[in-house]
Amino acid sequence: MIxxxxxxxxxxxxxxxxxxVPAHAADVYMGKVVTAGDGALVIVEKDGDNxxxxxxxxxxxxxxxxxxxxxxxxxxxxxxxxxxxxxGKLTASAIEGRSAE
Length: 101
Fold this sequence. Notes:
seven-stranded mixed sheet
């Protein structure tokens, strides 16, 4: 009886913990494309730092407001990348690009 009660309390606490722990919010990065292709994107931010992103299939990519592919992005294009850290790597979920002028 005590074991059953303890199990139920444990399960209930796990449900509450899952509801209380906030989901990791995605971060936004802005910069210029250095390289884009083969499932990866490298940008240089305004402060000079390079950031490398994994770009999985299904990542929403736009260029000048129109749907695009990763290969459509060129060095010098301005981008806004929404990404989360997954398995220790920045993984893009959305990339909004604007052609360099």
